[in-house]
Amino acid sequence: MPPSWTIAIGCDDAGSEYKELIKADMEKDPRVKAVIDCGVTKGSDDFKTPYPHTGVATARKVASGEADRALLICGTGMGVAIAANKVKGIRASVAHDSFSVERLVKSNNAQVLCLGQRVIGIEVARKLVGEWLGHEFDPTSASAAKVAVIGDYENEA
């Protein structure tokens, strides 16, 4: 049975164009049950919200169980990734190619994909999100023990 994801999506002003286009794609994708828009939106009062706020708010949707995964977009993807990783239990990273997107999920069980609107073209971004939606982590894989170690370190704090 194919996955049926609830996806939280967020961005800052530097990622808003891609967010709107990819959000529309996901709303049509049969693997996506629902899309939760965590902002920002061009022309709205929240448009100049700094990326740390949007990154954390979006990641919290995953941490709370309201969303299965999240997609964050800023100029490079790096700022929102750093912010999202401050949320306990979240594993977020930038990925700009197919292999990285695959390993993000299959090797690291990361729930948050981060993209850079100023780094990759929109068609590449759309392709990567489509691939990301098709990848699932195998909890019986050799990577599961490594992901558990990340959780152990996180719980030390």
From TrEMBL:
UniProt xrefs under Pfam families: LacAB_rpiB
Key words of the record: Isomerase
PANTHER family linked: RIBOSE 5-PHOSPHATE ISOMERASE (PTHR43732:SF1), RIBOSE 5-PHOSPHATE ISOMERASE-RELATED (PTHR43732)
UniProt name for this protein: Ribose 5-phosphate isomerase
Family of this protein: Belongs to the LacAB/RpiB family.
Annotated signal peptide: none
Isomerase as UniProt keyword: yes
Record has Chloroplast as a keyword: no
GO molecular function: isomerase activity
Single Gene Ontology BP annotation: carbohydrate metabolic process
Source organism, top-level taxon: Eukaryota
